[in-house]
Design a protein that fits this description.
The chain is mainly beta. It contains no helices and eleven strands. The protein has a six-stranded antiparallel beta sheet, with no helix packed on it. Strands 4, 5, 6, 8 and 11 form a five-stranded antiparallel beta sheet that branches.
């Protein structure tokens, strides 16, 4: 995976090395474990934002509202992530009801809540974007 996050306006970089998920239809949720690697502490404390998207013939396109969270429940923010640090972050993503099977895509961004700066993400092939896609996640 190795999606590197950096900002055009502020110093600091870190990489999403990988992730694991458990789809839990009984709870209408997906549990995610994110595996981060620190490189250079960020000047700004970045929150993470996720949006889940799916589609099926009955419900059409389904999209969650954006949800924001601080890494490690606010206990270990991105300005603390040093070169070589490995950070695991776990969260539960609540999902809307769907009438039949779907495949979820979770889009993940890093956003500075104060300035609105959105980190750029460099994929292994060198392309830049503002969100990394996690998935496909079959559900149920």
């Amino acid at each position: 995976m190795a999606a590197q996050f950096s900002s055009a306006g502020y110093p600091g970089t870190f990489t999403l090395e990988g992730y694991r998920y458990i789809a839990d239809p009984a709870q209408q949720a997906i549990s995610l474990e994110l595996h981060w690697r620190g490189q250079q502490p960020t000047e700004r404390p970045y929150q993470f934002e996720w949006v889940a998207l799916a589609e099926n013939p009955i419900d059409g396109q389904v999209m969650t509202v954006p949800v924001f969270w601080w890494p490690q429940n606010g206990n270990y923010l991105t300005p603390c992530w040093r070169n070589g640090d490995f950070v695991r972050d776990s969260l539960v993503l609540d999902l809307p009801f769907v009438s039949q099977e779907v495949t979820w895509e979770v889009r993940l961004r890093a956003v500075d809540a104060r300035t609105g700066d959105v980190m750029q993400i460099r994929s292994p092939d060198g392309t830049l974007s503002e969100a990394v896609s996690l998935g496909p996640i079959p559900y149920p």
